[in-house]
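Expect chain and fold; see below:
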Amino acid sequence: MTKLLVTGAAGQLGRAVLHHLLETSKVSAGDIVAASRDPSKLSEFAAKGIETRKADFTDEAGLVEAFKGIDRVLIISTDDLATPGGRLKQHKAAVAAAEKAGVKHILYTSMPNPDRSLVSFAPDHLGTEEAIKATGLSYTILRNAWYGDNYLMSMPHNLATGTWYTAMGDGKLSNISRDDCARAAAAALANPPADNKTVTLTGSESLGADEIAALVSKVTGKPLAVVKVTEEQLAGGMANAGLPDFLIKMLVSADANIKAGNFDLVTGDYETLTGAKPQSLASYFDSRKADLTA
């Protein structure tokens, strides 16, 4: 029996991975361990026969205990973006714990091109990838493209005003849904690619701001004008709206990364892992119409 553990199991991506392990990859519940800082949030999975464990990324000794008896672990990147260096420290603790616990294979959710990315949290991903490779353990790095889900944070407001201010210029990016990333992660966890692999999970097309806005308008029936601004102007507008500094830095740096072309890539890695086509951004927007117009 091969034991599979998913960290961050109470989060949106972790929950979706567990769903796909059971429903899409057809893994037995008895072979799965769901881990979270707060296992009480995992009761729905416990009810399905999945073992739950506490895994706090700030407690390496506790992580070693959580990872004991595990063959493959999926380390989902944490959400500590506000603390400089905090997330990388957490990830390195998880990697070290996996090695100490005797885990045979590490999977990790990263991002495209972390070595040259301008996104503020790219060093966290690059450093984690390097830490995994330094263990000598077999690994699968899952570099997830920018989620289509991320648009749900700002598009409702943009549609309400009829204007989308962006600093991505004429850059393009290929979006993928969080659920598709979860399905690919579940597939890789259930059946890792041969040898050590770094795969980049993208949608099937790269689009610019005007094309994305047109998709949003078509789905919602509301006009959306794209206004291209500088990074400084975008940051100023976000500051005036009361966004915290770390979030402003992240969002502005993401636009800069798009403008630089570092998110403009399309691969077939999702289909190779899952045997399916990724959901198009148009289809994703259509499925989330209520959220876009909320």
